[in-house]
Amino acid sequence: MLFAGALVGELAAFLLSGSLVPVAVASAAAVAFVIGIADDVYVLGGRTKPLLLLLAGVPLVLLALREPSLYEPSLTFPILGDTSPHFIIYTALAIVGFPVVANAFNMMDSFNGQISWFTLLASSAALVGVALHGFYVSGFSVGRVAAVLPLLATAGAFLVFNRYPSKAFDGDSGSLMFGAMFAAIAVTGGIEVAAMIAILPAILNSFYTLSSVRGFVERRGMRTRPTYLGEDGLLHATPDRSAPNTLVRLVLLAGPLSEFDLVKSMTSLTAFACLLSALISVLTWAI
Description:
- By secondary structure, the chain is mainly alpha-helical.
- It has 2 domains: 2-211 and 260-286, no CATH class; 214-257, no CATH class.
- The chain is 67% helix and 3% strand.
- The chain has 12 helices and 4 strands, in the order ααααββααααααββαα.
- It has helices spanning 2-17, 21-42, 48-53, 58-66, 87-107, 114-136, 142-162, 171-189, 192-198, 200-213, 247-252, 259-286; strands spanning 76-77, 81-82, 227-229, 235-237.
- Helix 9 packs antiparallel against helix 12 (259-286).
- The termini are far apart.
């Protein structure tokens, strides 16, 4: 249902705007969704999944060959301005960015409501960035703004059922789809820097986890869990030093929390990151 909702939304954005941006976002979502289904059914390895997710960026590149204006092959930094455009280097980095972002979203999908809140806030920050970029950059397509709305709407609708206590779950197919859509929006919207700031908690979570387990390891194959449910009904940080250093575990080192309060704390971190992202967008295009 999540994929169907996102696909219908992007199709409507394409029909209304005539831009290929929604097509690029929908294509990335479709590839990531299929890979996620395979992971849900067969449990792909920690290295296989990121490699397959490189394919999520391929439709974007193919569409850019047909419509070069689909994305600008350069990065825009606040105050400093644009880097020199280079299609090959930028495109290679963009393709690599898809598995990075998609896996970051996937690793934030651990507790009731966590991924839906995260995606809703991150897509809201992306909408601010794309809208400001579109308002201040001459000739910027409205299709870029329209392409963000299905992700925002899908995450919002999913939150109703996914928040604590959750009545619906997205699986790897849903979280990877959310991440791929966000990556495509960041590239086509020209908001790469602001987008990375918005999902900084997920990026840090991935970094902490990968550095502690020393490589790509499927979370279902981790020997020691980063958290455990105590007899008091609260979540605790695993005292074992070999446990992965996830962002959740670091939060729980300050003291045990209920699942509701833990997700609330993680959501607060994301909200703060998204506010910084919005500020970055203002500094980049409105000042």
